[in-house]
């Protein structure tokens, strides 16, 4: 079951999507290189599924960027 997107997940998903496009990659190939099902990668891109740290590392490597490039400048909402 998919979760409702949060601002942070949506922003991260947009960044992943834009980097894939900028690099001229195909989502299906990035999913394969990151050892992910393409359906799950699409959920990450839409911001409807939380991304584990290890998954984030694999996605970054598959795109050819560092994890910090994916996370740099993301607006994190402090809870509590």
Percent helix, as a range, is: 55-70%
Rounded to an integer, what's the Rg over CA atoms?
12 Å
Structural class: mainly alpha
| Number of distinct beta strands | 0
So what's the overall shape?
Answer: globular
Order of helices and strands: HHHHH
Main beta sheet strand tally, sense and closure = none
InterPro entries: Cro/C1-type_HTH, Lambda_DNA-bd_dom_sf
GO molecular function, one term: DNA binding
Protein name: Helix-turn-helix transcriptional regulator
Describe the fold and architecture.
It contains five helices and no strands. The model has no long low-confidence stretch (mean pLDDT 90). The protein is globular, with a radius of gyration of 12 Å. It has helices spanning 7-22, 27-33, 38-46, 53-63, 67-71. The longest helix is centred in the first third of the chain and has 16 residues, at 7-22. Helix 1 (7-22) crosses helix 3 (38-46), helix 2 (27-33) packs across helix 3 and helix 2 (27-33) crosses helix 4. It is an all-alpha fold. The termini are far apart.
Short description:
GO terms for molecular function: DNA binding. This protein is mostly helical and 80 residues long.
SSE order and pairing:
Layout: H1 7-22, H2 27-33, H3 38-46, H4 53-63, H5 67-71
GO molecular function, one term: DNA binding
Pfam family, one: HTH_26
Domain HTH cro/C1-type: 16-70
Considering the chains and any ligands shown, give keywords for the structure.
mainly alpha; 60% helix; 5 helices; 0% strand; 80 residues
């Amino acid at each position: 079951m998919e979760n409702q997107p949060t601002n942070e997940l949506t922003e991260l998903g947009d960044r992943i999507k834009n980097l894939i496009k900028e690099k001229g990659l195909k989502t299906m190939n990035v999913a394969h290189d990151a050892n992910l099902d393409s359906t799950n990668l699409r959920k990450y891109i839409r911001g409807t599924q939380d991304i584990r740290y290890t998954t984030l590392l694999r996605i970054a490597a598959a795109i050819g960027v560092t994890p910090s490039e994916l996370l740099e400048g993301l607006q994190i909402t402090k809870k509590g």
